[in-house]
Specification:
Pseudouridine synthase; 5-stranded antiparallel β-sheet; elongated; 329 residues; 22% helix; alpha+beta; Structural Genomics Hypothetical 15.5 Kd Protein In mrcA-pckA Intergenic Region, Chain A; 10-stranded mixed β-sheet
Length: 329
């Protein structure tokens, strides 16, 4: 629902079967496009009326014969401003937008990156087609990729789509796959890496596989291609959980860090591998400027139609160039 002015929903008349319910629950059952939390906020802000009088208690018990009107204010502009940043759009409709995020683009404004983010780009691109999430005209970010990880991302344009996608990601029903170029050759070629992930005990800016205090994490991988007799490998990873830096941490812990990873890739494995290369190959590989990690596949159930939709992308140019160099070794 795109709103330019205040919108009044169809009045809700309470029947005998609804009597005794909480007001926010009764409204949520009647107006499925709005989350219960959104309706609760509308009640508390005085936008729900009974006989013309605002009611402000979401927990109040409704009675048979009560009639409630809900006024939904037009979404306010998001605090981040829209900025004209080019996007590679894979799909867009009234409910959502799917993009292929380039490496170097931060997803959310944050200290150190107050603007020029994906959120700024989506606000500018989508404009009035953002129907408002929580009363704010903003894109619904339901998952993230690190700044220097490229790949497929989906963002919601409506509150209903946002709620559906959040539920799917929480239930781990979304199909996500990543390509990574790692040092060495994992053995076996297909396996699982399991290890709880938490803050590094000595460097709080890093994550690590920990024995205490972490959260369960499981990464499945398979070998796609091997280069230089095992110097490096292209693998596909699938996440059974979604922890911060999970793939990067698990692969580094296994002894096969991602090429170019500035945080988890500085190991003896990397140094030993570089010694075996000629100067040109060494310069090209050691100069790779980001972790060689790309989210190449994303599949989910469309929030509006229920249809399963899938998106796949090729390796971005910098990773494709890196594989070309490695294939010549």
């Amino acid at each position: 629902m795109t709103q330019k002015d205040n919108d009044t929903l169809k009045p809700l008349r309470i029947g005998a079967e609804q009597a005794g319910q909480r007001l926010d629950r009764a409204l949520a059952d009647a107006h499925g496009d709005f989350s219960r939390s959104r309706l609760k906020a509308l009640i508390e802000d005085g936008h729900v009326r009974r006989a013309g009088t605002p009611v402000r208690q979401p927990s109040m018990k409704v009675s048979s014969g009560d009639v409630f009107e809900v006024e939904v204010p037009a979404p306010v502009d998001a605090i981040p401003i829209g900025q004209d940043i080019p996007l590679e759009i894979l799909h867009e409709d009234d409910a959502l937008i799917v993009i292929d995020k380039p490496a170097g683009l931060v997803v959310h404004p944050a200290p150190g990156n107050p603007d020029r983010t994906l959120v700024n780009a989506l606000i500018a691109h989508c404009g009035d087609s953002l129907a408002g999430i929580g009363g704010v005209r903003r894109p619904g970010i339901v998952h993230r990729l690190d700044k220097n990880t490229s790949g497929v991302m989906v963002a919601a344009k409506t509150a209903a789509a946002h709620e559906s996608l959040v539920s799917q990601f929480s239930a781990r029903s979304v199909d996500r796959a990543y390509h990574a170029i790692v040092w060495g050759r994992p053995v076996p070629a297909q396996s699982e890496i399991e290890g709880a992930i938490g803050r590094h005990p000595k460097n709080r800016k890093k994550m690590a596989v920990v024995t205490r205090g972490g959260k369960r994490a499981l990464t499945r991988f398979r070998t796609v291609d091997v280069y230089g007799g095992g110097l490096a490998t292209l693998i596909e990873c699938r996440l059974a959980t979604g922890r911060t830096h999970q793939i990067r941490v698990h692969l580094g812990h296994q002894g096969h860090p991602i090429i170019g990873d500035p945080v988890y890739g500085r190991t003896t494995t990397r140094r030993a591998a570089l010694k075996s290369l000629d100067s040109a190959a060494k310069a090209a590989i050691s100069g790779f400027s980001r972790q060689a990690l790309h989210a190449h596949r994303l599949g989910f159930s469309h929030p509006a139609t229920g249809e399963t939709i899938d998106f796949e992308t090729k390796l971005p140019p910098d990773m494709a160039s890196l594989t070309n160099i490695l294939e010549m070794l």
